[in-house]
Amino acid sequence: MASSVKQRGAAPAPSAPPERGGIAARWAAMPLLARHLLGALAAFAAVVALTSMTDSLTDLRIASIGYYTLAVAGLGLLVGFSGQISLGHGAFMFIGAYTTALLVTNVPMVPLWLNLVITVVASCVAGVLVGAASARLHGPYLAGATLTLAVGLPAVALRFPEVLGGSNGLSFSTRGAPPALAGVIPDTRWQAWAVWLAVLLALVALATISKGRLGRQMRAIRDDESAAALAGIKVGRTKVVAFVISAGCGGLAGGLQAYLLGTATPSSFSVVLSLSLLAALILGGMGSLWGALWGALALVYFEVWGETLADALELESKVSNNLPIVLYGVILIAVVLAWPQGIQGALSRLRRRWQRR
Amino acid sequence: MQSRKLTIAAAGAATLLLTSCAGAGDVEDTGSSELDVAPGVTEDTVVIGSHQPLTGPAAPGYLQISIGAGAVYDYINENGGVHGREIEYVVEDDGYDPTRTVEVTRDLVLREEIFAMVGGLGTPTHSKVLDFLNEEGVPDLFVSSGALMWNQPEEYPLTYGYQVDYTKESKVQGAFIAENFPDAKVGYLQQNDDVGTDSRAGLDQYLSDNVVSQQSYESSSTNISPQMAELKDAGVEVLVCSCIPAFTALAMLEAQAIDWQPQFVVSSIGADTATLMGLLKEFGGENLPADQMLDGMISTGYLPQITMSDDPWITFYRKVHEEMGVEEPFTNTMLYGMVQATQFARALEAAGPEPTRQSLLDAVNSNDFSGPGLVPFVATEDDHAGYDGAFVSQFNAGGTPEILQEPMVTDRGEGPLESFDLERPTPREIDILTE
Known about the structure:
Shape of chain A: globular
Region (Disordered) (chain B): 411-435
Strand order of the largest sheet of chain A: 1-2
Number of strands of chain A: 2
Organism (chain B): Salinactinospora qingdaonensis
Helix content of chain B: 25-40%
Keywords (chain B): Signal
Oligomer: heterodimer
Strand order of the largest sheet of chain B: 7-6-8-9-10-13-14
Structural class of chain A: mainly alpha
Number of strands of chain B: 14
Pfam family, one (chain B): Peripla_BP_6
Family (chain B): Belongs to the leucine-binding protein family.
Strand content of chain B: 15-25%
Distance between the termini of chain A: 18 Å
Strand content of chain A: under 5%
Radius of gyration of chain A: 22 Å
Largest sheet of chain A: 2 strands, antiparallel
Number of helices of chain A: 17
Largest sheet of chain B: 7 strands, mixed
Number of helices of chain B: 14
Helix content of chain A: over 70%
Structural class of chain B: alpha/beta
């Protein structure tokens, strides 16, 4: 930190030859939001570059990593920053997926961006309702309340089969690449770009919030609620805001999933989903958005690797069918035992050790 | 400052570019895809795929289907394959979760490059990949579900049904009950999805005056005591159960618990007696006289049943089961998968020595695959029904089931029930199945 402050003075000198310190200084001098936006742009370019080398199935998986990253990151803000627990984040994905699905099927002319904005608004409203309760509940009580949400909400689809399609859910097609680009860019790749663009913009918002004033307030509440209250932080309101932001991220993730896969079905949003999101968060590491990315990667790819492994080992079908699930569990336990801070925690420890040399 | 503007501009422009063009749900028809191709077909193999619940809540009931199908393919491969090619059957686990169905189906089509999708299982699951398979030009044969939507040749020209659809089957049930229990009070217990609504459409044509209570259940909630109490209180004598096996078993246990003995009439999807016995014992304890509880149960079906020991196909499949060393017991559910595999292998053979997707579809459309089922198997250009009718039988504890009504065919509308002549070949008459 100290070195970057020193370099800041040197940067404006126009005659200074371009050097590494100059770029770093300029970077550090930039406002937070601009830095995050540039980072997001770079990440988007990376996604575009990556997908141009992959097949359509990998594009789909890359896009899945995108929306899972957002869902886990939103949960990370809630759990890692404001210190609240949610066992029901799948419910917000459910709300998001159904909002998008209903918009696509009933008003197909609404463009995607507006669709997603409405989806975020709808899930934020849900977040306000749940968050209002969450401000009064602590620990296991909050966990119980959110768990109820995850168990109960998908049943809404069964209650209104005419509108929400009952247990068979809704299926629909979403628009891929515009006609001008049809044949040049496969639909799935185009959709993967759209998903990642939305995810990155949301992550920029999340990163900016968590580094800013609100993020500091959340951490203060997480560490000591009474101290935070004494310092003038409105504890209840901040907690609700954290919940709303987190719900918005979950909803957007669900909406993007519906957009990508063209389905919204109650059985996809079971308690298992909520718990896997939480597991992915712990695996990836709390307190950093990178952790969400590792968690999402694990969610999508552990299963694929598990299947490949099962095929390679030529195990008995009873064993191989369940191997992916077992593998995920074992790795989760191992990571938590070896690195309680998750993958990101382990990585940053490695980096620190390397820097010290 | 300049770079900040640049960033915002870039992000904004990209957003607009990606999303502003038109409505997210406005999808144009992209026309049909090339069918004169043969991905997955090599010198010595044909790769086909299926999505099945191998894990998760639906696995215990349906796992046997793909095991049965796999055994038949193994048997065919050991006896020379189809036109010298081995059938490579790739089953991917979707856990009955539609989201995963979408993923594994893309995996099958894009990475495994399957020649055809065969017997994809489940209505909530398979309905999510119909569009994809038809757009990609992948023959989607013999879907493992009785929903009506597989038989829409106009909209989904590549998708073909397999089992008798729920409406046709329940018309057979309704007519049978109206004739044999004319004055009985009838109650429905139905799954709250298309199984229920499609079944009701058929039953009501014959029973609307006799029905005294209609109840439905959610497959996610195993407590059906309130529904059963309602049915009992309404004085129901004949209970029509359009249920999956777990709920047939639960209904029987609950009826026993409240000391009520209605006549059960169960759809084929929930009437596999071997599966039911296992479930009854699982839910009600090992000492339960499951055999006795099922005694007298009336059910509809379209395939021969494993207890029909003098049927040549049952003898044949029993042999396949034994020779291929299948560990799981031989049940009607397993038979379902075995017949499905047989029908596909026959179509593949009829597609000729150099099959393409088009020639496979042409072969299927030849409508030339009667048997192993006991009702006609309909597959033409305009009708993708699959098995087209049902018979009614009654379970006898310890004995062979008694056929109460010979197989009848009908339509899904208001047409009559008709009998038919069926030339049903034996396994010996089918080349690919002989040693």
